[in-house]
Amino acid sequence: MSDMDEMYQAIILDAARERSGEEDLADAEGESFQMNPVCGDRITVKVKLSKDGSRVEKLGWQGDGCSISQASIGIMHDLVEGRSIDELADLYATFRELMDSRGHDLTAEKMSALEDAAAFEGVAKFPMRIKCALLGWMAVRDATDQALARRERGDE
Q1: Each residue of 80-92: pLDDT tens digit?
Q2: DSSP 8-state class, residue 121
Q3: Which of 66, 72, 107, 118 is most buried by its number of CB atoms within 10 A?
Q4: Which of 88, 112, 110 lies closest to 100 in space, CA to CA?
């Protein structure tokens, strides 16, 4: 195992233990439940937007599953909370590109933008584990879309 692979493995294991952002968000505007039926990973993500709806003000999640899914959502929480909706969309697209490319051919700039989420480069080489890494990302995108739609409709 290379030094880089060992570092990425350590980042993933540490993030899985830390579970950053794990909390029930009582005043959420959007919520998404996602499940990976192959391995049983389950996650619920809740978001609260800023007053003007341009930022993810607060992000909370609850769930259980493999270390890859739990680490991915924790790292994603730290990367996304406080960011604009446009930044979230860009980060989601970049992470999705990393997974779809099987960990190859992402520019150094894109890898840098992912910060610790770049550690999932090795995971992307294993098709059965990609869904684990994407689970939280799909949930936050869905929860954010729900929150924006709720605001558009004028729901309280």
Answers
A1: 999 999 999 999 9
A2: G
A3: 72
A4: 110
